[in-house]
Amino acid sequence: MPFGDAPAEIMMSQFFQFTDKALRRLSWLGFLWPLRDLFYCNWVLACHPGMQERALWLRDPAELFTLAGGPPELFPSHQNPLEIFRFIEFAQTKNPRTALEIGTACSGTNFLLAQAISSLDLILGVDLQPRNLPLLHRLTRRGVQRVMIKGPSTSLSVVEKVKSALCGRKIDLLFIDGDHTYEGVKADFETYFPLVENGGIVAFHDIAPDFRTRFGRPTERWAGDVPKFWEQVKVTHRGVQEFVENPDQDGLGIGLFLK
Ligand SMILES: C[S@@+](CC[C@H](N)C(=O)[O-])C[C@H]1O[C@@H](n2cnc3c(N)ncnc32)[C@H](O)[C@@H]1O
Hints:
By secondary structure, this protein is of the alpha/beta class. It contains 11 helices and 7 strands.
């Protein structure tokens, strides 16, 4: 376990969970994110001196997943572990060198992909509010360049920043997990598909319909219109694969095809 359970640590983790919730609700306080992230990074590394070294050397997806998502669950990947492990296993067979994740949330998946897919040397992330950047940068393995970009994924300025970070290279692995409305996921796909290398992987998260869609029962999971878009887009591409642990589950699931 990366984090201990001493009373002081439990109190600190509750404090960070509280600030996360507050910052998410009170968007005008969003400018405090960098301060909170810096504080959190220093706290985690100070409490767990061996963690940085361990994270930098770990390659096993399951161990990395536990490390990022272990208590106090502030650096988690929002993925079903079995699905993301199978996805990583598949991605590794294609030896991607560049990756772009749209919608990075707490940065847990960005961390996982960069550490576990050994062929990557450049990983980009885009989010309206990238989180945990100081910790993420401290946990970036040598040989990997990481660029995290803040802003709406399809805005001209963000697309320009992505292109500039790519320095003329193409994207070998595109992971779309941002705006889950139909227009949003379609726009992400149409914006970034042209930047994907021929033969590259184009993946979508949340291809499984959530309970809100299937039963009219909202839960904390929100796959939105991604399943609808996925059903349409997958029929026109080759090499389709779906990683869905349980067909009856509430959202999640990863779908991919090859460009
Ligand atoms: C489901 S979360 C991503 C989870 C993450 N990929 C993971 O596996 O841990 C969706 C993220 O997309 C971001 N997002 C939503 N709309 C966006 C947009 N138009 N541009 C950039 N990011 C967006 C949100 O801020 C949120 O952090």
